[in-house]
Amino acid sequence: CGVYGVYSRSAEADVSGMTYLGLYALQHRGQESAGIAITDGAWMDVTRGMGLVNEVFRHQVPHMDNQYIAIGHVRYSTTGSSMLANTQPLMVNYSGGKISLAHNGNLTNATEIRRELEETGTIFQTTIDSEVFVNLIARSRKATVEEKISESLNKIEGAYCLTIMTENKLIGARDPQGFRPLCLGKIGDDTWILSSESCGLDVVGAEFVRDIEPGEMVVIDDDGVKSYKFAEPKLNMCVFEYIYFARPDSVLDGLSVHEARFEMGRVLARETNYKADIVISVPDSGNTAASGYAYESGIPYVEGLVKNRYIGRTFIQPTQKKRDTAVKLKLNAISSAVQGKSVVMIDDSIVRGTTSGKIVRMLRNAGAREIHMCISSPPIVYPCYYGIDTSVRKELIAATKSVEEICEYIGADSLHFLSLDGLKHCMRKLGPDHMCYACFDGGYPIEQKSASPAEHDK
Ligand code: 5GP
Ligand code: SF4
Ligand code: MG
């Protein structure tokens, strides 16, 4: 998911309009639903719907006279099914007023907390784990909203980046592991922005201020920005943000996604050393690594596959059947580019193997002579519990098949996955031990207490 927030006392700033633009820039983080909540200090309103940002707000972007705080959310479901009741931002009334909240990530003890809350009379309205935040906050006996939130966050485990809005504050928080990114930006002296990725700041012309630290909560109000440390930071940023999820023009925790991906491609080239005619990418997620591969190897980078740009990310389609049709709709080979050629094809990851198998067949039909598939991540052997839909273990092709078997399954002439050491080398700027690599090596930074992803409604 993607989260966003704007606080502005500037007369020119249109906080809901800016949130709309911010969500548009974060659309790649989730295409199932979108929502915007706004306040003028007295009223709070939320508008949510299924679909893309420009579909949900096709007729109108929410607006209030004197609105000065807004938060927004784009959703990609990993827990809780794809339906209207599960859209965000969530909004609740509590003793101190109204509160809205947008969450990116997956909680690992949400089921336990939910059970405890339900036993003492709390009624849940959605099936998403994010609802425990608002209920914990609403039930907290602490005096201030800052204390209520930090008390609640200390009960919750797992991955979360939050933007929260009360009638007079915009609050951002990042879990102690820092699995997901969140940054702060500003325009002038009176407009503050929170965004999952820095590309959400660029779109509204904001200047990047800094990343929110793991275990940090920032509170923005008329007194400016205050920072609270609610937990010790551990920093286990998700390496998949760099491999696949984030946009290449974003800079997360000081490392450019483009730079990281480009380097993954260069390392892949050094690890494989193929003598092929052309390098092609599986657009768009393979593009940056493919350009890195071409740069390092000296093999020309050619556009071998065309992507229909009017459809979203295939993987994010929740059922397998929908995913299957989506691949054909999404990609086609350019015969004149690949005919008779030995091709190095770069993609970012193999999850179920659906995409790769289809593309290899497509390229063969288009006349490619040899297909050497190179993947800019190691085999995904373990499921993710922190908010990336790398699915249940039995669906992960690398969990049950060797590299040779996968190669045979997808029908390529050879298959190479970036080594884990190679990947860690690309991440060295962040400190290799300060990242989550659990889907490759099973080293989960926090234990999964709740139901496994299989037991959610995937
Ligand atoms: P597969 O067909 O192997 O299951 O999917 C791999 C493709 O799905 C890659 O091209 C990758 O870019 C894309 N993809 C879409 N969403 C995700 C995601 O959440 N995680 C990963 N690892 N890949 C994804
Ligand atoms: Fe990211 Fe993999 Fe860790 Fe999940 S398990 S947070 S996808 S690195
Ligand atoms: Mg892809």
Judging from the principal axes of the Cα atoms, what is the shape? globular
DSSP helix fraction: 25-40%
> Structural class, please?
alpha+beta
**Mean pLDDT across residues:** 91
Number of domains: 2
Beta-strand percent range: 15-25%
The unique ligands bound to this protein are: guanosine-5'-monophosphate, iron/sulfur cluster, magnesium ion
What is the CATH fold-level name of the largest domain?
Answer: Glutamine Phosphoribosylpyrophosphate, subunit 1, domain 1
Secondary structure: elements and pairs:
Blueprint: E1 2-8, H1 15-25, E2 33-39, E3 44-50, H2 53-56, E4 69-75, E5 90-94, E6 97-104, H3 110-119, H4 131-139, H5 145-155, E7 161-165, E8 170-174, E9 183-187, E10 191-195, H6 199-202, E11 207-211, E12 216-221, E13 224-229, E14 237-238, H7 239-245, E15 251-252, E16 255-256, H8 257-272, E17 278-281, H9 287-297, E18 305-307, H10 320-330, E19 331-333, H11 335-338, E20 342-347, H12 354-365, E21 370-375, H13 397-400, H14 403-410, E22 414-417, H15 420-426, E23 435-436, H16 438-441
Parallel strand pairs: 14-23, 17-20, 20-21, 21-22
Antiparallel strand pairs: 1-4, 1-10, 2-3, 2-4, 5-6, 6-7, 7-8, 8-12, 9-10, 9-11, 12-13, 15-16, 18-19
Short account of what is shown:
The chain has 16 helices and 23 strands.
Task: Name the descriptors.
458 residues; alpha+beta; Glutamine Phosphoribosylpyrophosphate, subunit 1, domain 1; Rossmann fold; 2 domains; six-stranded antiparallel β-sheet; 29% helix; 24% strand; disordered C terminus; binds guanosine-5'-monophosphate; binds iron/sulfur cluster; binds magnesium ion
